[in-house]
Amino acid sequence: MAVKPTQSAASERTISVMNGWVVLVVNFIVLIGALYLFGTTADTGGPMRIIGGLAAFVGLLMLGGYFTLQPNQARVLILFGAYKGTVRSSGFHWANPFYSRSRGITSQKDSGAGQGDSRNRPGHRRAGGGLGLQWLTTKLSLRAHNFSSEALKVNDKRGSPVEIAAVVVWRVENTAQAVFDVEDYTSYVEIQSESAIRSIASRYAYDQGEEHELTLRGGADEVALALKEELQVRLAKAGVIVEDARLTHLAYAPEIAPVMLRRQQAEAIIAARKIIVQNAVSMVHMALDELDQKNVVKLDDERKAAMVSNLLVVLCGNSDATPVINTGTLYT
User: Which of 254, 293, 93 is nearest to 163 (CA)?
Assistant: First the structure.
């Protein structure tokens, strides 16, 4: 059985094109010459009029080759389906007017002005009114972009439903891969980012992990690093570099949030009580040692037990202790 060869990644080639201002002067001269030939041969006709017509056609055709690039922008040059190179230098340029201005049409969710609205995406132009069709242009932005995911409901490592969201900072590094290896690199980034967030959330418990176990709430930096590495593996195919990835929202799902809140409160109370009792025992021990070393009073075991009980009640109680004056003795 024959095995299909894997598709190789597109390789970017950076090329230079002609200065637009120089070509603009030549273009102006050609058009003026064409007008002159038309004017001087209006009555006589002949070969010069044909040359004038050709000059006018060339001059008008040249007008379609101008384009501008801002800093951190690039244009992929495609001639009749063949990749010719990428222009990365900013400024006013001129190239073959037959180079494509678009790289196809893709369908997108028409979500109004929401997070996934493609009207705000780089390298896109709307087409077909409200049909959700998008022109994919050959001009790409190389600037850093933010993608903020919606709150996703995912089961953590222990199966508890949690809501999680993240922000991803990314930029295009390889323009050839971004254009030719994926259909729409902005949609690819969004979908793969949400998939990576779900994958990372399922690897860790929300909190209360085992001893030294990393959790979503307790290991924010480690989880962010794992998310960034996961995203970089997924987005490398699209020629995208992940600059940063951070969780922006983390909470239990609404259906279990009240129960988990009560559990957290109970655990916090137990932890606080544990610290109070430990410190109270230390203070009682210190008090008994001080009384014994300085010979303030001699206490037998029964009196020590009574003192320990009284001190622990005072130190561990939730309310202020009420003093009671004992006019007798411990034995009467």
Answer: 254
**How many Å apart are CA 229 and CA 235, to the nearest integer?**
10
d(CA 165, CA 323): 55
At residue 67's C-alpha, the angle toward residues 64 and 68, to 5°, is: 165
Question: What was the pLDDT predicted at 282?
Answer: 81
Please give the DSSP secondary-structure letter assigned to residue 119. Answer: G
Which among 124, 121, 170 is positioned nearest to 143, based on CA atoms? 170
CA 283 to chain CA mean position, Å: 52
Which of 187, 82, 194, 61 has its CA nearest to residue 138?
Answer: 82
Residue boundaries of the structural domains of the chain? 18-94, 101-141, 142-255, 258-316
Contact call for residues 190 and 147 (beta carbons, < 8 A):
yes
Quick one: pLDDT band at residue 38, thresholds 50, 70, 90? confident
State the Cα–Cα distance between residues 61 and 58, nearest whole angstrom: 5
Number of alpha helices (DSSP H) and beta strands (DSSP E) in the chain: 7, 13
Banded model confidence at residue 113, pLDDT cuts 50, 70, 90: very low
What's the token pair of residue 206?
A: 């929300």
d(CA 215, CA 227): 13
The fold of 142-255 is: Tetrahydropterin Synthase; Chain A (3.30.479)
